[in-house]
Amino acid sequence: MSDIPGWAMVMLLAMSPISELRGAIPLAIACGYSPLEAYAISVLGNLIPVAPLLLFLGPVSSFLMRYPAWDRFFTWLFSRTRRKYIEGREGIGSVALMLFVAIPLPMTGAWTGCVLAFLLGFRFLPAFLSISLGVLIAGVVVTAAVSSAFALGHTMGI
């Protein structure tokens, strides 16, 4: 097998934009970690990229906007997104972002939450707090579902 420790594999999987908690928690439990350990390692791993993403999406888009094609794209994207989703709804934005991240479905995790927060013009701290709370809730949901599935499998002799 690999020389990478199990906890590091779980954490790396949790940090990745595709699997996030939905892949990391089942892996951790399958590797023998308790549900609490699986939750803690996976949530920590999932939160690691949040601050850098929130801090660097703006500068990267600003850099790209120096080129006319990217400038047109980002100008269109930002104005459309803010006009369609933000105007008149600023007060519910943080709760909506948290709930969006908390639903453990494909394309609803921390990475997508960071992109969404950036597109909608969230400031760093409200975005970070909303995404973090969403990750904590999603971790509880995924851990409960996976733990139940493993328990059911053991009960059925699988």
Walk me through the structure.
- The protein is an all-alpha fold and 158 residues long.
- The two termini are 24 Å apart.
- It has eight helices and no strands.
- It has one domain.
Number of separate strands: 0
Please give the domain count: 1
- Helix/strand class: mainly alpha
Number of helices: 8
What percentage of amino acids are in beta strands? Answer: under 5%
CA-based shape: elongated
Task: Give descriptors for this structure.
about 160 residues; mainly alpha; about 75% helix
Kindly summarize this structure in a few lines.
The chain has about 160 residues and is mostly helical.
How are the secondary structure elements laid out?
Blueprint: H1 6-15, H2 20-30, H3 35-47, H4 50-64, H5 68-86, H6 93-102, H7 110-119, H8 124-155
Helix pairs in contact: 1-2, 1-3, 2-3, 2-8, 3-8, 4-7, 4-8, 6-7, 6-8, 7-8
